[in-house]
Amino acid sequence: MKKVMKVKKNPAAPMTGEKIRYIDLFCGLGAFHAAFNTSKHFECVLACDIDEGVRKIYEANYGLKPHGDIRKLDIPNMPDFDILCAGFPCQPFSIAGNGEGFKDTEKGNLFYDILNIIDGKNPKMCLLENVKNLKTHDEGRTYDTIETELKKRGYLVTSRCCNAVDYGSPQARTRIFIVGTKMPFVIPEPTITTFTPVSAILDTPSDATVAANSRVKLHNYTLVEKKGDSKPGKPHILYDLISKVTGKGGRQGERVYDVDNVGITVCASSGGPGAKTGLYKVGDVIRRLSVRETLCMFGFSSDYNFAGTTDENSLFYLGNSIVVNVPLSFVPVVESYFGRS
To answer: Which domain holds residue 47?
Structure first.
């Protein structure tokens, strides 16, 4: 009797049809969606975000209405998918946040809700993003917990801290990307060799905010002896804004940066005259970046639809976003992993 050979199934083969199906948890403005949208091989089958305002924006841009609280998802009835994407809340692990990590019962424990979905659906790939401080938080125990839990579920785990400037963004923004897969996977190396300056994405908005006024004076920034401070690829500070009343100043939102270098990290909660975007000297004007310019700092299209959201709230949502350029670099590697090209 002739022996029939069994063909070993590729564990990374997409679950259904031609599309590689993914879900977008803590979706925010949809950086993962914007990146995967550049390929015909991907389909987002579910998105989720607790913020009602950002859900409205997401639907306006991608035609998919996100669910709300991840803790209320009906996991057994979720659509099947191949990739779980999650830029889970960073505040518990951030230097600028509360630093409580998994002890933060509101946000820090949401990683375990991700695990609940993994347990229920067993995706072939998990793509997680967070602040770079996650790697060293609690003397490395936080990251070790994440890696251990993924390995328990049969995943090979790899990670890399990626600075957005190395992927073509004018924004210095370093975030950790953690990838769990059933087969070996290599996070792509950045290919950009020339840094993009802030000047490359500037408009000339008529409502430019002038920072220097009767209460504030410009003070030449003198701490340039800090190693690498003026090198390409790192934000270069021109001035501090000093209060004429208190003599204080010089925080991120009170500094003026050089548009001929890369920009600082856009923050959701930073204050001062340069709140969120920082201040830049554009010709003779010192001002914040506009919403459109900040979109370009994140790699979103300049015609991205904020669905009637105020500028301040739009900048807040951007400050919490992933830079599209980084997951965009993952697209061809993920396609290859799933046997697509």
So the answer is: 20-192+322-337
